[in-house]
Amino acid sequence: MFETIKQSRQIQFALLFVAFFALYFTVPHSDGNLLWRLPSLIASWPVILNDAVQYAMNDWWHIEYWDEDIEDTDSAPLLLWITRAISGAILFVIQVVREIMIGGLKTIVAFTSWDFVDDNPWARWPALPWTVVTGAAMVVGYALNGRLLAILVGASLVYISLFGQWEPAMQTLSLVLVAAPTAVLLGVSLGVWAYKSRTTEYVLTPLLNVAQTFPHFSFLVPMAVIFGVGDHAAAIAIVIFATPPMVRLTLLGLRGVSPEVTEAGMMNGCTKFQLLYKVQIPSARHNILIGVNQVIMQCLALGVIATLIGAKGLGDHLMRALNGLRIGQALELGICIVLIAIVLDRLSLAWANKQVDYFADNSFFKRHKYSLIILAIAVVGSLLAFAGSYLFEGGINYFYLIPHTKGITTADFWQSGVNWIVDNWGIALKGFSDFLIINLLIPMRDSFVGMPVSATFLLAMGTGFIVGGIRSALIVGGFLLFIALTEWWDRALVTMYMATFAVIVSGFFGFAVGILAAQNARASKIILIICDTFQTFPSFIYLIPVIMLFGITDTSVLTAVIVYAVIPSTRYTIEGLRNVPMALQDAGSMSGVNRMQRLFQIELPLAFPHMMLGLNQTVVFALFMVMIGSLIGTTDLGQIILKALSDKQGTGYGLMIGLCVAFIGLAVDHVIQKWAKDRRVALGLE
């Protein structure tokens, strides 16, 4: 029966493509032709939204207050009062954390003292020496996962310090330390609420779907308008961006708690509150801590990009280096960001995977030995930093902080390497780039931009109908209709062209590498480690090497997109093939099939639903990276979001374009998820 359905779908897809090309080549290209372009009926929505925000920020419900500077009463809108209060509280916390890490307690002194002066001794409170932070982090790494993690953490932090990037690194880390706990607390709370209330889950699910396909830039636009420019606006955007995975993993963890565990808690007389916080949440600990890992990585990823709305740290330095085409310095900064990402990722994953012995009866010193070691490191490191101020008087106190301008630098080495590549390989690379652009990318872009809207809808909705019936066709059509009725349909088609090209190439390489690696356990482990490492890199980092090779072209953007998007397709292919039940593989071998027959007739069909979910993630990754690629010049939707970032009147435009990008991803996500689910049911896997 399944083979009949399969053949039927093949015929349906063949007829669909025939009808698509018939429309493609016969519909006249005329702006007045509804089969060619739909009118921009919702183009005024961003203007209405912008006007509403500006009215709320400037005119709505003014409240009088006493202005000491002019010794008179003044007034401000209610929304401005609210946002000012929120911004001030968040900025205060960020500055306190930052000053503890890089020196001076001016914020706390100014908050607690009416007669604050710059020479107040508390305002000159020293920072935590980098040696103390490094030593403490190494102890944490050792406690979580042994010697290798401690060495990795120590080597990474020593590199950051010796290269003079400690201060900007701590500025970036301070954002993460404020935003991540907030996102975790918010995500766990919403996840518990959704677990307890089916209505809450129904309301949150579409919001989470949109949020997780929303481009990074679109989170920054409204925050910059409503809360202003600076670290506080960046922190709020980061919290909103990082919360969805925490909600999903909390809900997944609570749903995975064994009913026997819950019943045991109820039989022991637990109240609903005790059952939740003493039984179910501890039982879901692993999933929740995996969510913490995802939150931390999301915070760092957006924290780097948030330099576009005034966030301080490594992202700010990196952006300046790229704007000045100082590739050597940018690469050096990129390595620092990658090292921070790897350290945070490995520490949080080790915490999630560490087993807790709830029945251990250790002495006080055994229970708190690592805390005591960290305390000893803090005392010894502080004494060394204090002694260093006298030992290196007039010079650099290497035990305390190496200034940004006095650290080791390899920028000239990397820059000379870039120059060597340009001198020796520049012509070949430019020739390859020009060939790719002229012979493949431009024709493909023109073919996408030249698609009549009727043909696009026929292809998308027809695919949805064949895969999931009339409901899927209407869902996909609804997503596309929203985009088609805006004034950015052509830009959306350019975005689709870039994402399509990247997904095709990434999917091909990801499937090929995954299939080859899955044949050997050691190769699988190595490739998965590489995927884990590359997945920790903030997306912004991928632009640095491609600019070195190809300059500022579509080739650079698409190369970065392909490298970034190949990770999920590779990972899901390996995991899908490695999870094929051994009993089925043995049954195939006993039936007389050879190794290739077993791969193509048994393993790949069973793993294909899992592989398609990887392709789904590849689409989302590609869309995200295409938006990031607008930083180095593209003509897609990302350029309009960047323009909205620089325009305080652009809130509505940024949100609307973000929805357009999200709806492209959601349309593909719906079709693939539906197909994968039906395939698993047909194979008896569900």
- What is the number of helices? 27
Q: What pattern of helices and strands is seen along the backbone?
A: HHEEHHHHHHHHHHHHHHHHHHHHHHHHH
Oligomeric state, counting identical vs distinct chains: single chain
Which structural class should the secondary elements be placed in? Answer: mainly alpha
Summarize the biggest pleated sheet.
2 strands, antiparallel
Give the spatial strand order of the biggest sheet: 1-2
Query: What value does the average pLDDT take?
Result: 82
What's the short version?
The chain has helices at residues 2-26, 45-58, 78-102, 106-112, 130-145, 147-162, 166-196, 198-213, 216-227, 231-255, 259-267, 272-283, 285-305, 314-323, 327-353, 364-367, 369-391, 411-449, 453-484, 489-517, 521-536, 543-550, 554-578, 582-590, 595-629, 637-645, 651-682; strands at 62-67, 72-77. The chain has 686 residues and is mainly alpha-helical. The protein has a two-stranded antiparallel sheet.
Explain what this protein looks like in three dimensions.
- The chain is an all-alpha fold.
- Helices cover 77% and strands 2% of the residues.
- The protein contains 27 helices and two strands.
- It has helices spanning 2-26, 45-58, 78-102, 106-112, 130-145, 147-162, 166-196, 198-213, 216-227, 231-255, 259-267, 272-283, 285-305, 314-323, 327-353, 364-367, 369-391, 411-449, 453-484, 489-517, 521-536, 543-550, 554-578, 582-590, 595-629, 637-645, 651-682, and strands spanning 62-67, 72-77.
- It has a two-stranded antiparallel ribbon.
- Strand 1 and strand 2 (72-77) form a beta hairpin.
- Helix 18 crosses helix 20 (489-517), helix 25 (595-629) packs antiparallel against helix 27 (651-682) and helix 26 (637-645) packs across helix 27.
- It is globular.
- The protein starts with a helix and ends with a helix.
